[in-house]
């Protein structure tokens, strides 16, 4: 059987924390956990003067991980780079799906849930859905952030009518944080707000991940109910790596009826399954065409097929967005409304 991160975290959660009531996972010690070809590497954050108390913990963690199926070797590093969880005597609630902070992180954003918006391929309307959904959620009283993780062709600045805008920075606690750009009631960040020109940007793999992590962690998001991440399209290694890095609480898959028929949506579900990220639902885009002249609706790809396909995949069906001229026009004009089907789906997502 293959390695499962979820199972690894469950095993680590059996190890008691020497300093805080509870186990090392609920104490928030685990800073990272990766697996490559059966070799598992983990980092535990500990306070510098307490290293010795953690030597037995490291041994126990390595031993229990090496007993897992699919693991050849496990190596745990104790890192005192950051103080680790505060020792205020309070029992911290742990959640392995809390976004992980890279070492040295000092921002004080409080993001309740990170949600990835993904699609098996480009052009299905993922960005359009992400921005309208973000606005719809904000209209329903949630504080919402939207991060455009499409490094190669950032579309968010145009979609919210902020092309050419540069993000401002703010120095907090000796650290320079980037301020999100606000528009239509949401906080937004895109590489397009950080670079000088808006041309397509060519990055190599590790740089992409670095740039997205920076946008996630070095942006002063403040307090958010949800941060939506408009993922780069596809279900390959870069997307998998990014999902692992961000560790969202859940993922939403945007798909057109054709992709469903071609089983592309299944690839997305499989990808998130590999890293134990629950798929919260499927949004069917460009499902129904409403004739602008006579107002009649046409189910070009058949009615309810997508709902059935989603059920077969074991994914909740969040709803359908019609193919509508006004949606494209609003996107081009930078005035997405988040109304109509987007509002209904936002409700379902909440
Ligand atoms: P992706 O992010 O998946 O590459 P986009 O969101 O950029 O796709 O959408 C591709 C094109 O389709 C855009 O021109 C967008 O305005 C248009 N579009 C997306 N969804 C709809 C829709 N429901 N109705 C009309 N046009 C849409």
Most strands sheet: 9 strands, mixed
Order of helices and strands: HEEHEEHEHEEEEHEHEHHEEHEHH
Coarse morphology? globular
Task: State mean pLDDT (0 to 100 scale).
Answer: 82
What is the CATH class designation of the largest domain? Alpha Beta
% residues in beta strands: 15-25%
Small molecules (ligands, ions, cofactors) in the structure:
adenosine-5'-diphosphate
Low-confidence stretches: 82-100, 102-106
What proportion of the residues is helical, as a percent range?
Answer: 25-40%
**Total domain units:** 2
CATH topology of the largest domain: Rossmann fold
Strand-pairing-aware structural class: alpha/beta
| Total of DSSP H or I helical runs spanning 4+ residues | 11
* Rg: 21 Å
By CATH, the architecture of the largest domain is named: 3-Layer(aba) Sandwich
Structural notes for this entry:
With 350 residues, the protein is of the alpha/beta class. The protein is 30% helix and 25% strand. The chain is built from 11 helices and 14 strands. The protein has helices at 5-12, 55-66, 126-139, 156-159, 205-217, 237-246, 257-261, 264-274, 305-313, 325-333, 341-349, and strands spanning 30-36, 39-45, 73-79, 110-118, 144-148, 169-172, 175-178, 181-183, 186-190, 223-230, 250-255, 279-290, 297-298, 317-323. A hairpin with a 2-residue loop joins strand 6 (169-172) and strand 7. Residues 119, 122-128, 155, 233, 285-286, 321, 323-324, 327-328, 331 line the site of adenosine-5'-diphosphate.
